Amino acid sequence: MGKILTFGSLNVDYVYHVPHFVAPGETLAASKREVNCGGKGLNQSIAAARAGAEVFHAGKIGADGQILTDMLSQSGVDISYIQHSSGPSGHAIIQVDPSGQNCILLFGGSNQEITTQEVDQVLANFGPGDRIILQNEINNLAYIMHQAAARGLDIVFNPSPIDASIQSLPLELVSLLVLNEIEGAALAGTEDESLVLEGLRKQFPRCRILLTLGSRGCIYDDGTQRIQQKACSVEAVDTTAAGDTFTGYFVAADAAGLPPQECLRLATQAAAIAVSRPGAAPSIPVMAEVKQFSL
Ligand code: RIB
Predict the structure, then answer these.
(1) Is the N or C terminus of the chain more exposed, i.e. has fewer CB atoms within 10 Å?
(2) Residue 282 C-alpha to ligand 1 middle, in angstroms?
(3) Is pLDDT above 90 for 174?
(4) 238 CB near ligand 1 (under 6 Å)
(5) Domain limits, the chain
(6) What pLDDT score does 287 carry?
(7) What is the pLDDT of residues 43-70, one digit of tens each?
(8) Does ligand 1 lie within 6 Å of residue 241's CB atom?
């Protein structure tokens, strides 16, 4: 089994429990505040490691980032490729409403200070058979994709959070695209949900596509087979990092050589458990919990 490298964000998440999302001009009291580890990159690394994979995390933290590397280490992720900045780490201001939905304000901080030289240093340690997981919360993504492909790594890309910069990335180099309905519609260039998968398939003919549909489950399409997986129904406490848990679990199970049906089932169960718990990284289950959970 090859190694898994996540080159991605590490954020300190400031989570505020609110009766509703704050409106323009409104001042709103939060009933509770938590400080958690998060960032889509960190969450996906932790999910893959808790699923049992050998995971390396590359990225950059600031002086306030010790809590982030501690969390990764405690979860079994190798942190030797994490760089340090004199500025602040990335952070997120997250509002969580009583239904468990969130809205997130992101500050990139040191996640946006990655140099091409640092990318080269990290990627020199990886090669064919290894996988790299990327999200859209760090800078120099196009460079990372080109260099990773040149070294023979399989590129897993989660285009989240989606923005216009995604269109300028060399997405033809991606071998597994993991995205939600909003990201799928934006990339496929259609609002018609029934056309999203076909649109993506046309644009990326050689890529495996994993489209998540929230409470309606997900669809996997590798060009030769299409598999639908229904979601688990759980009481939502906090949906933050559910998608990251799904991605990390799917990639770890896929890297272990499990068939796609099994990867989808494990990823779905892991995400359901994450939704039923508060926080981002703290909500991600270990494999023993996932195996006990039934769909
Ligand atoms: O996907 C959830 C994550 O998005 C949070 O942990 C937050 O840091 C933002 O990156």
Answers:
(1) C
(2) 12
(3) yes
(4) no
(5) 4-9+39-88+109-292
(6) 97
(7) 999 999 999 999 999 999 999 999 999 9
(8) yes
Tell the residue nearest (CA) to atom 1 of ligand 1: 241
Of the chain, the percentage scoring pLDDT greater than 90 comes to 96
Is the pLDDT reported for residue 106 higher than 90?
Answer: yes
CA torsion through residues 238, 240, 245, 247, sign: positive
* pLDDT at position 295 over 90: no
CA of 280 to the centre of ligand 1 (A): 7
Give the integer Cα–Cα distance in Å for 156 and 171: 10
Q: Is 40 in the pocket of ligand 1 (CB under 6 A)?
A: yes
pLDDT band at 245 (very low <50, low <70, confident <90, very high): very high
Confidence of residue 191 (pLDDT cuts 50, 70, 90): confident
Distance of CA 40 from the midpoint of ligand 1 (Å) = 5
Which residue among 68, 89, 94, 247 is best mutated to probe the pocket of ligand 1, counting the most ligand atoms within 8 A of its Cβ? Answer: 94
**Ligand 1 centre from 109 Cα, in Å?**
14
Mutational pocket test of ligand 1: of 43, 96, 112, 238, the residue with most ligand atoms within 8 Å of the beta carbon: 43
Q: What is the pLDDT of residues 3-23, one digit of tens each?
A: 999 999 999 999 999 999 999
What is the atom index within ligand 1 of the atom nearest the CA of 102? 2
